[in-house]
Amino acid sequence: MDLVIQAPSIAQDVLGAIASLADAQGIAVLDGGSQQAYRLARIRTHDGIAEICAAAGIDYALVAADLDRNRVRVVAIDMDSTLITIECIDEIADMQGIRAEVAAITASAMRGEIDFRESLVRRVTLLAGLPVDALARVYAERVRLSPGAERMLAGFKAAGAKTLLVSGGFTFFTDRLQQRLGFDDAAANTLVIRDGKLSGELAEPIVDAHGKAARLAAMRARHAKPGEIVVAIGDGANDLPMLREADVSVAYRAKPVVRARATYAISHCGLDAALNLFR
């Protein structure tokens, strides 16, 4: 078993302490992109590693030595608060002057306290009457990629993986991001528009937590053979079925319920830190 540690900055004395604590048989410097990254080879123990990394703001992962990036065939990633830094529906609501009300429902759904599908319908209903031009303003003025997003996608694509952008959000945004970043497939919800305004409705079928998992399963069936790897990355409770569908799941700056159930967690680094989980 190897130990991968990553952070915006890792002091040499902290690196030494972790290597000594883990009784690592070697240390390799990784190409961390926007973060410092090291692979500590053939560690003999991981007792105390979680505590020292938490105190130092370091992401750590216990990885199999043979986890090979060239075996990754599908990478699925959530959009809101994962691929991008915002929750689009909260920003749309801000245009309607109801951000606080909608954001409270969003946060509760992401923590898994209320059903995502129910919460989405409730939030979209509140957007009725908003001019569709507001969506373009949100995309142009507020959508920002998470750190390392483009490097992560390029790295997995170079290894031959197909990429899927899957969201409980809206096709207005996934369509544009798919074209911009070259995703092989995308799935999201379609807002109903009448007379240039949001009707407060969603077109069927609604992409909820199970819809996300189903789209990933379909990608697996098309592109991954037995023994090959499917990766999923998400942050909220509605990503959990999709993360379970994957062979390797990554909780990115995620809610506690997601961090607890994912294979790995990235809480301090950019998305490109996912590349270093693989050789």
Describe the 3D structure.
The structure is a single chain. By secondary structure, this protein is of the alpha/beta class. The protein folds into two domains: 1-65, ACT domain (Alpha-Beta Plaits, 2-Layer Sandwich); 68-279, HAD superfamily/HAD-like (Rossmann fold, 3-Layer(aba) Sandwich). The protein contains twelve helices and twelve strands. Strands 7-6-5-10-11-12 form a six-stranded parallel β-sheet. Helix 4 (88-96) packs antiparallel against helix 5 (99-110) and helix 5 (99-110) packs antiparallel against helix 6. It is elongated, with a radius of gyration of 20 Å.
Short overview:
The protein is built from 12 helices and 12 strands.
Structural class: alpha/beta
Strand order of the largest sheet: 7-6-5-10-11-12
* DSSP helical segment count: 12
Examine the secondary-structure arrangement and name the CATH architecture of the largest domain.
3-Layer(aba) Sandwich
